[in-house]
Every structure is written in structure tokens, then in C-alpha cells.
Write a structure and sequence with these properties.
By secondary structure, this protein is of the alpha+beta class. The protein has helices at 2-14, 28-31, 62-66, 79-84, 108-123, 136-142, 163-171, 179-189, 199-205, 227-235; strands at residues 32-38, 44-53, 58-59, 73-78, 92-97, 129-134, 158-159, 206-207, 210-211. The strands form 2 sheets. A 7-stranded mixed β-sheet has the order 3-2-1-4-6-5-7, with helices on both faces. A two-stranded antiparallel sheet has the order 8-9. The longest helix is centred in the middle third of the chain and has 16 residues, at 108-123. The chain binds 2-acetamido-2-deoxy-beta-D-glucopyranose (3 copies). Residues 1-21 form the signal peptide. Keywords: Signal.
Amino acid sequence: MEFIWQLIFFLLIYNIYVVNAHLNTTDEKYSKFIIEIYGEEDELLDKFHLNYDFLIHKFEEDALLKKIPTAQYIHICNENDLKEKNKEDIEILILWDTNKINEFYKSLPYLNAYPNWYTNIKKQGKTFCFRIDNVGWKRNAYEEICDSKNKTIACPNLIIVGTTQLTYRYQKEDVANINKYINNYYKKNGVSFESLLNKYSSNDYRIDNNWLAIPVLIDLRILKFNETTFDYCNKKGYDLHYPP
Ligand SMILES: *[C@@H]1O[C@H](CO)[C@@H](O)[C@H](O)[C@H]1NC(C)=O
Ligand SMILES: *[C@@H]1O[C@H](CO)[C@@H](O)[C@H](O)[C@H]1NC(C)=O
Ligand SMILES: *[C@@H]1O[C@H](CO)[C@@H](O)[C@H](O)[C@H]1NC(C)=O
């Protein structure tokens, strides 16, 4: 199940502007949501209605959302679904993000992706709510997840991690293989996913022929070296070469 969710999510992030929900999204029942904001002690801080604008792929209340002062996690569901079902009975997709408790605005791109994704799932006769947890870098990278024998251990469906941490999670068998999505991307768009990345990134996201993640943000680091030091050492008889 998790695997399926991941595929769909990545599809959305990348095709956000081409997702054409075949449902009539001008129909209010697909654009009305309820968001709940929770604090550090699991306390409900705020709860309000949101209206999604499928033309600009944002909530109409964007300015308000940007100003949310504190959010340990948020929970969002379609309003119509909540009339038909108990909140507890609706499947939930959990994203772990890296921000601090006062930086919810940084999670907004994911929140704004949810209704597009939601309509795609709805088209298949299913539904889901979405939760974004701001757990921070350390827990994102290292915390134990998904233990079938211990339900108190959280089981996020999606985690924002750096590429080095991705390798660590892969070794712990925490990461699903998304080869199928990558192949489908090519079939659907006629462009290989790999060709959209720089060649170094392709290596970062593939291990043992498995695609493991999709880049959201690329952070390049540079290595500087001092030619004088190299030249000096070479003069002294060391066999040192400039880095490539
Ligand atoms: C979509 O829904 C709106 C509002 O319910 C309705 O006015 C419109 O005719 C619908 N469009 C289509 C193509 O069904
Ligand atoms: C389940 O995990 C929690 C949190 O790590 C831990 O405190 C608890 O002892 C675990 N329970 C079992 C039965 O392993
Ligand atoms: C490079 O190394 C030389 C010799 O050690 C030193 O004098 C110089 O300040 C270094 N240059 C920089 C930019 O650090």
C-alpha cells in the first residue's frame, strides 16, 4: 500500500501543472477542505475551512496559511468525506518534513499538491486525508519507522531526506523502490525521468538499479583546493594531482 502511495505522490509533485483531474473540480465538493493545526503537546491549536483553486493550484487562503505561527503537525481532509465518514476511518497519508515548529510555510508546496492528488485518487473511488509532521532533520534521517510488531512506532509514507540519509535509510530497508513510477513517467511523457536530472543526481537517487527517491531541491556543495599547496608539495617530490 505504501508503495502505491509513494508512486502517486511523486507523480503529482512533478506533474502538478498538467494534472487534469477528470472530476469536475469546479464542483464544490472537491475543493472544500478542513485543516487542523496541532501543537507540540498534541493539542489542537486551530481548525478552519479551506477552499482550493484548481486553476492556480493553491488554496485561496494561501496568505493565511503562510502565517500559521506554530504547527507540530497539520491534518487535512476533504469536507465532504468528513460528512460521510468518521475522520478515524479515512486512510491517512503521512509526510515527514524537516522544518522547525514555526516554519510551517515551508511545507505549503506539499499541502497545495494534496487536492490535485486527492482528486486523482477520488477518481479511482478511494479517498484519503493528509498529514504533514514537522519532525526535523534528525528524526527524518534516523528515527526508526514502521514496525509491524509495534504500532507506537510511526510509519510515515513519505520523508524528506538528504541524499546521504537516503543511503542510510536504504540500508535499513526503509525505502520503497520506485522503478515502476520512473518507467511510467517515460511512457506517459515521452521524456525519461533521468534526462531531467543532472548526471550526478541520477547516481544519488539510484542504488543497486533501484530508483529510491525524487529530488525536490538540489543542494550543490563545492570543494575548493589550494593550488599553491599542491604545487609546493609536488616541488618537494610528492606525487599529488589536482582534483578533477
Ligand atoms: C461542474 O460543476 C458545476 C457546479 O456544480 C456545474 O455548474 C458545471 O456545469 C459542471 N461542469 C460539467 C462539465 O459537468
Ligand atoms: C514500542 O516502541 C516504543 C517506542 O520506541 C517503545 O517505548 C516500546 O517499548 C515498544 N514496545 C514494544 C512491545 O516493543
Ligand atoms: C594557499 O596556500 C598558501 C601556502 O600554504 C597560503 O599562503 C595561501 O594563503 C593559501 N591561499 C588561500 C586562498 O587560502
